[in-house]
Amino acid sequence: MIRLKTVPILILVTVFAFVLFVGGTMPYFLFYILLLTFILPLIHCLIVLKYLKGYVKIPSESLFAGEDINIEYEVTNHSFFTIPYVEIHSDISRQLTGICSPNVALSLERNETFTHKETITLKRRGYYELGEITVIVRDVFGFYSFRKKISSNISLLVYPKVINLSTFRITSSHQSGEALIQNSVFQDKSRVASLREYRAGDPVKAIHWKLSAKKDTPIIKEFESYGDTYATIFLDNESKYFINDIDRLLEDKIADSALSIVSYCLSQGIDVSLETQDSYKYIMVQGQQKSDYKAFLEVLARFKGNGAFDFKSLLLSRIETIKKGSTVIFITPNLSKGMGSIGIQLRTKNFNPLFILATDTENDMKNIDKEVQAMFNQEGIPIYILDHTTNIKDALEVYNG
Question: Could you tell me if residue 167 is inside a domain?
């Protein structure tokens, strides 16, 4: 790309017009001198631009959000001429951290190499195709400005930061013939599964006295069961709910919440599946052991609010395939009447629905139907509301129903 300054061009055009109309040896001599003044810097820039080479280097392995990463790029002048002015723009830091790196301005002697290194902290998860810098070359008079992109074929996968939960509300079930049993007979009293506020009918022995005193309200301990336990997580990334997702805050809250629950399930040996979309592609991963963890990390690192299909329709097509008695977890930025009907439908079919609502109140992104919320509270369907500033561990470990 070439940029020319308009004033020198106007001067050249004016002198050329004067020569054409007036003529004479001296005007032509001045015109040729002026013409060389423009042509020689242009030739010089074109030559050095052709022989200006470089590379970009970042680690190829996958990393976690919050870790440090070393970025390095190199620019070498392989021509026989000095480059009087070189300006280097790197957008890599901005993509990874949201903070722009300062531009670098310098001159390069022939066969001279400039190397730049910096360490940045990865602020968010995601899949990044990086490895490109822009080099701007100008002549000594500043007549011309050339841009050249120097790139290396590099991609970086940044996993979400793991948030370890000590408890979470996963309901255990036991199949006895055709009957699905969910009661304390199958509970392991030595292992607490989750905590919640007291409801009428709860046994006094299940009260967590220390936490009740701290919260100034009775808190109940729910214990893990000996029976079969299944969890199915649906991530709502229907694109229309993420159009105004500033800095992808909702995306990250949904991904981080999902990973914390997956991590808890795998640590407890709970059979867990995660289902979502990637544009027009349907995504599903499943596991029960810690060795299955990486597959979930891969999906959640690439998670975007780009789902092409209606989330409600997608759920309705999947209900019949979910294992009976499963805890069905919806992580969504939208609690509508349609989602409310699905929650009630699942409850009547002997499932255990649970909703996690991702919001961003600071940017007016809170899609919660109050009637549906009240209905869920009445039916005992847990709802967790997580704003983008909410501490996930604190919110998910204690159910405030």
Answer: no
